[in-house]
């Protein structure tokens, strides 16, 4: 306890030492991270997991207390990000707004998105709208951090004020800056999604598993972000622990891909699996068809692959140079046009991508087009393409296999 006013100002009521302050800070910030990734993101925005009402309300209260974010607004902005990803309407795309803007001014972008009230109503459906949300959390959103500031000062003195200031910057920096910015600019990709999302690290620990951003964009409704054996998602570990004590119920995870042997014609199971794993299919095409063909081109030319085609252009080949600058895109197209075998493989990739992305076709028409694509691929005379088509025909969701 403080013995004088100066002692109180320096250390508050608790007079905590450095280790106590450090532990408090880590626990408090990780609770905030979990409130965002588990409740706002995986539960409210994507409906991948449900929490016990008491726990769900604790997450909501903690978010109000430590961030002033309103559930409906956060959910709406995030859903719009997925719906309009990497377009001019994306609330925080580094491709359009610039990596420096998203990284350092993420809070401003969030405020601008909040002001789009029509979007909030459109994309925020299903968010909490009970009495406490209408009477406290929404109209008095900034009261939460104000209460936290007073508590921090009372408990820890001016040290508490410093900790509070860092807490206020925690989510804006790590979520709005690192995930929204670096998560679409730098890292590795398990899946060739139609956006630029990347995994920042295979071990999602520091920011609750949000580091596995490419995985999330491949399977947005999955409550589990780690999708490779070497990856770890601490958020999923927390969900499984909460599930064991009946505080959480997992609703959706990414379906498991199976490959059936000796399937001669794509069937309904194939189509169902491809629609669920379309990004995996395109990733397999890039790694098992296009990449080997490029290496063969380099060997035939007696040159290093990087000399034959710069890495940036090789990456651009995945999506026909969508994210390249116009001059680089034209350079890539010219390079491909001069190589008939590569051009054929790029055309097959584009046709398959269009087939899997189509949403207007009925099931029978989609299956017919897939069967035609496989027949033509097997008749192409290109071994890698033939092998890919043979494997593609066997795609199935694990539960569909007898």
In brief:
This protein is mainly alpha-helical. 62% of the residues lie in helices and 4% in strands.
Number of strands: 6
Helix-strand topology string: HHEHHHHHHHHHEHEHEEHHHHHHHHE
% residues in beta strands: under 5%
Describe the global form.
elongated
- As residue ranges, the low-confidence spans are none
Summarize the main sheet. Answer: 2 strands, antiparallel
- The helix/strand class is mainly alpha
| Alpha carbon gyration radius | 25 Å
Helix fraction bin: 55-70%
Into how many domains do the coordinates divide? 2
Report how far apart the termini are.
Answer: 68 Å
Count of discrete alpha- or pi-helical segments spanning 4 or more residues: 21
Question: Can you give a write-up of this model?
Answer:
This protein has 2 domains: 5-250, no CATH class; 259-400, no CATH class. It is 62% helix and 4% strand. It is built from 21 helices and 6 strands. The strands form 3 sheets. Strands 1-4 form a two-stranded antiparallel ribbon. A two-stranded parallel ribbon has the order 2-3. A two-stranded antiparallel ribbon has the order 5-6. Helix 12 (213-218) links the parallel strand 2 (203-204) and strand 3. Helix 3 packs across helix 10 and helix 19 (340-357) runs antiparallel to helix 20. The protein is elongated.
